[in-house]
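One record is kept unedited as follows:
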Amino acid sequence: METQLPTPKVSIITVVYNAVATIEDTILSVINQTYSNIEYIIVDGGSTDGTLNVVNKYLEHIARFISEPDKGIADGFNKGIALATGDWIGMINADDWYAPHAVEVMMNNGSAKDDVRCGNIMLIGKNGFEREKKSKVGWLNFGMYIMHPTCFIRKEVYRQTGKYDISLKIAMDFDMFLRIKYKGFEIAHIDETVAYMRMDGVSNDTVKMHHEELAVMRRHLRGLSYFNSWMFNYLNRLRWKYFYKDPLRTQLN
């Protein structure tokens, strides 16, 4: 008889606040995964727009659900991690959704030594334009080039690294991943599209994002590493301001 290898338990966390228009897509993408050993956790920040009515339709598929005021997205992440009992943790927020095979792909690929696995994401503009972005692990010093909704992180990594910084409103994931990197954890890229993101969320405030990324760089980088990252960030802001016409935000003919 063929021996079945155990499937690691994966906790999926969705942080949501007033996302009645999109939360159902997120929930369905989790509960319809091809991977079986999933613990689904939803952390709501006290929604008042009907989000809770949508969540309540799927309570039988949700392991833990809390709804209470919080201090922002990072606080929601921390609450979800505290509730998680899985070996791995993934996060998919209410404007994003998984490909049907996402968890299975990320658990069945990579190496046993991986502490973090990240994949590719498909960005969806309001104009219908789509663009795939790959996680670029080697670019992490220059900004958040790892696509957070595609990431699965061992629970032990969070235990050793600590909580997301609630003072950061956008770049809390960049800060976390730099901390993970400089603690020496292994971050692997799996070259598969496993998540989709609508381009109208908080992280699309590019000016605030760049300012927060610079603040995070100052915390973690020194000397030439900081200078190179600062210069890259500065030139990238000039490119966005004066030269780059983002097709995801441009009206299609």
User: Anything to note?
Assistant: The two ends are 59 Å apart (CA to CA). The longest strand covers residues 187-198. The chain has a mean pLDDT of 91. Residues 115 and 186 are 5 Å apart (CA to CA).
